Amino acid sequence: MSELGTRLKEARIAKGYSIEDLQEVTKIQKRYLAGIEEGNYSMMPGPFYARAFIKQYAEAVGLQSDELFEQYKSELPVPARDESGALIAPPTPSRRETFAKHSSNRTGEIMPKVIVALFIVVILAVVVFFYSNLDTNDPIEEGTENEGGVQYEEAAEEQTPAEPAKEPAKEPAKEEPAKEPVEKEPAKPKASLDVKGSKGETTTYAWTGPAKRELVIKASGGPSWVQAMGPNQKDLIPARTMAKNDAENIDVTGLSKISIRLGATPNVVLTLNGEPVKYTQDLLTQNIVIQFKDVE
User: Fold this and answer.
1) Angle (CA) 220 289 189, round 5°
2) Is 87 in a helix, a strand, or coil?
3) Which of 39, 153, 183, 228 could make an SS bond with 237 (beta carbons 3.0 to 4.6 A apart)?
4) What is the pLDDT of residues 206-250, one digit of tens each?
5) What is the CA radius of gyration of the chain?
6) What predicted TM-score, i.e. pTM, was given to this entire model?
7) How wide is the angle at C-alpha 9 spanned by C-alphas 6 and 14, nearest 5°?
8) Which whole-number Å values give the CA distances from 166 to 86, 159, 160, 163, 173, in the listed order?
């Protein structure tokens, strides 16, 4: 270590600076500051810069550089001089060199970023290309070439038009058998029995109704003498005495009249086609004459 270096180091320590603090103040690399303290100037760019660094170091730690240079003149590096004896300053870089250096520095800073950006763009392009091919790739059509290399197209199979859906055959409507007309029974003519008049023991009735008719004589209340005759005095029931509950049915169809002789009239009930013949006299012995008239 030189005496100049020792003097500067003591001043730095007295100032409270570390070598790093002094580098921050002077903006001189600490290896050059350490070289100054050790008296090793060979590591510096040249004598000119070594003297400039020493001056800046001295002023940073509060020393007078002129006095220091004069006191340690023998230890300072000697700069080169030209033929006239003037100090030769280190060549100043030209504007082109400065610009080239500056451009080189900027290029060195920008190029990594540019390379990274290009790399990302290339990756994105590959990804887009890959997915676009997945969407647009068509399957390889087979059979587009024959063995002779002549292209042909297979005739499209004619598609048979779909037949319209057949509707289920409708079963013929069953013909219902014609209903035979129901022959309505002719309405039975209403029967009527009217009293035409009474004379003595004889009461005459006029009957109008169906041609078929039946007369029932029944001794319901007790025995009675009874006789029935048709036209021309023909006996339909010969004269006889009917016991209680005896009955005689007489078909009077086709007769124009019937004459009945009753001995005990209250004991006898007469019905013509189911309709009772009402007596109009309270005589014990009576003659009942019924005249018939068909309405059919």
Assistant:
1) 90
2) strand
3) 228
4) 999 888 889 999 999 999 999 999 998 888 999 999 999 999 999
5) 82
6) 0.39
7) 125
8) 123, 19, 16, 8, 19
